[in-house]
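Lecture 7, part 2: worked example. A protein chain together with guanosine-5'-diphosphate.
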Amino acid sequence: MQIKTAKFVMSNSDVAKCPNSPLPEYAFIGRSNVGKSSLINMLTERKSLAKVSGKPGKTRLINHFLINESWHLVDLPGYGYAKVSKKEKKIFQKYITDYFRKRPQLVNTFLLVDIRHEPQPIDIEFMTWLGKNQIPFSIIFTKSDKLKSHQVENNIANYSTELMETWAELPPIFITSSSKKTGRDEVLNYIEQINQS
Ligand code: GDP
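Predicted complex, written out as C-alpha cells:
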C-alpha cells in the first residue's frame, strides 16, 4: 500500500467523541517508549505525524489519523509507565478499554513489543484481555535493529513458546525497525489485505 495522504483528525479521551465515521480502524498500542510514534511516522512516511518523545507516557489520548481517505490509524496511549499516578492509570485504562469495547469500526489492533525484552506480564495480560473480548490483534516487534539477526530469531522463538502456553494459534507477527525502515511493507500490505477482504 502506498500512503498518499495522512492527516491528523482529532485527539480525545472519550470513545463517544471519536470520529463519527464508518471507516475501518487499525489501532496501535504498547508500553510507553516501545517505539510507537516512530513506527507510525515510519509507516506513514511523515516525520512527525505522531510525536516521538524522549519522555515516556506523554501521549495519553486516543489519536485518530485519516490515511488515504479510506481508513483510520488510531494511536492509543502507551501503557505501563510507572510515573503515572494510580488514579490516573485507572481513568486511563477505562477509556482504553471503552475504546476497544465500544468501537465497532476497530478491525485490528497492533500490539507493539520491544524485541529486546522477554515477554512482559503487562503485555501478556493485555493480549489475554483482547482475546477474552474477541478483539483481533497482531504483534509488531519493534527496534529490531538493536539486535543481531540470530538474537531476533531467538527472542521471537522464546516469545512464541510463551504465547503457545495460552494460545492455540499464534497471532500474526511483524518484525520492524523504524530506524532502518524495515517491516513497513509487511504491516501496510496486511492492512490493505484486510481492507480488501
Ligand atoms: P513511544 O513512546 O512508544 O511513542 O516511542 P517513541 O517512538 O517515542 O520511541 C522511544 C525511543 O525509542 C526514542 O528514543 C526513539 O528514537 C527510539 N526508537 C524508536 N523506534 C526505534 C527503532 O526502530 N530503532 C531504534 N534503534 N530506536 C528506536
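The pocket of guanosine-5'-diphosphate is lined by residues 32-38, 52-54, 56, 78, 142-143, 145-146, 177-179 (CB under 6 Å). The domain at 6-196 is CATH 3.40.50.300 (Rossmann fold). Keep this in mind for problem set question 3.
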